[in-house]
Amino acid sequence: MYAPNRVNALQLQTVELLTVKPPDQITELRASLNRREIPALNGIRAVSVIAVMLYHFDVKWGSGHYGVMFFFVLSGFLITHLLLKENAKTGTISIRDFYIRRSLRIFPAFYVFLAVYITALLLVRKPVLWDQMLASATYVRNYFEALWHREPTQAMHTWSLAVEEQFYLLWPFLFVRLRKNLPLLLKYLVAFIAVVWIYRGILSFLGLGKNYIYYAFDTRADALAIGCAMSIAIVLGKSQLGPVISRIWIGAAAMAAVIGFRVATEMGIPHFNAVIVNSVVPVLFAILIVSEIRFHESPLYSWLVNPLMRFTGVISYPLYLYHVLADNVANRLPEWLRLPAEFAVSFALATLSYYCVERYFLRLKDRVFSKPAAVAAGA
User: Fold this and answer.
1) pLDDT of the residue at 18
2) Rounded Cα distance, 283 and 365, in Å
3) What is the pTM of this model?
4) pLDDT for res 150
5) Largest CB tally within 10 Å, which of 270, 273, 310, 311?
């Protein structure tokens, strides 16, 4: 570890990457990313969680698959962005502080949710499937589903949180090891993404199980790596990003392509999801993220920064956790009333969780790490 007050070659190199005047097309994007609140960020979170909710509420055009992929890309992008900022500020990365911040952000709301979920099952006298609950509580639910998926399921949506937690356990150490050479780290990420694409394609064509391909970390890690690679590419000022960032129609084309892939998914083309969708769509999402942040004031994306979308993004984590309970509460209502009731109950439970649980621990996190306040706010 480097002392925070020690100026060294590595720190100067990283600070230079973040502060030197970049090419014009990247200037505004970097400026937006360095704000206390990244524009459109909460709106992007809102879109992702609403896509998942609609899917679980049996709305045909909703897509949990696409919503989760969007979350994965965004997580890789933001976590890497925060690591880069810390490295630029201090010349080092504190693994200990990283895990304290992540723990205060994730664990309290998650374990309160599991307690509420189990209590609700007991109150309605449904048997608790303790093996599934243990898999969720220990963040291995993705591999539980990949290897032993069976019906009925309880709190199965926590599999995606397990994927993200496994990413948190690996990525900071790799970043610390290679932070002295960001171009090399970017090349490793690109190579890793290509390997996962080939690996997933082989599994699909060998017929080794759709559940494993869908749930396992080793078959979904490329989406997170794509977000990481995009964040590093922005810091390095890669010239290939210029056309993507400087032209809003590129983002619009990426959005149209995502919609096209979503429609094609319904056609049931063999290997389409595993080989094509899981590889191409995360790249489109990475383009969309930088386009939405860069052009957040344009008519195409301005709806992402309205108060409702921002608030939905703020409570997106508890919304993701609790919406499955709302589905169970509303499933006996008349069909015309079911969807509004599901959203109303979801927002009520999520708001309660945010103000009664999350907000306290977020403030605690900000107090503990008051020195890098801007970084904490960005997280």
Assistant:
1) 45
2) 32
3) 0.88
4) 87
5) 273
Number of structural domains found in the chain = 1
In this predicted structure, what is the pLDDT of residue 25? Answer: 60
CB atoms within 10 A of CB 42: 20
Asked if residue 7 is part of any domain, the answer here is no
Packing angle, helices 130-137 and 141-148, rounded to 10: 140
Q: In the chain, which stretches have pLDDT less than 70?
A: 1-25, 239-240, 243, 370-379
pLDDT of residue 4: 46
pLDDT of residue 130: 97
What is the reported pLDDT for 284? 96
Whether 194 is in a domain gets the answer yes
Q: pLDDT at position 3, please?
A: 44
Q: What is the pLDDT of residue 239?
A: 66
Q: What is the pLDDT of residue 31?
A: 80
Q: How far apart are CA 228 and CA 42, in angstroms?
A: 19
How far is Cα 327 from Cα 47, in angstroms, rounded to an integer?
19
Domain assignment present for 23: yes
Task: Confirm whether 26 is domain-assigned.
Answer: yes
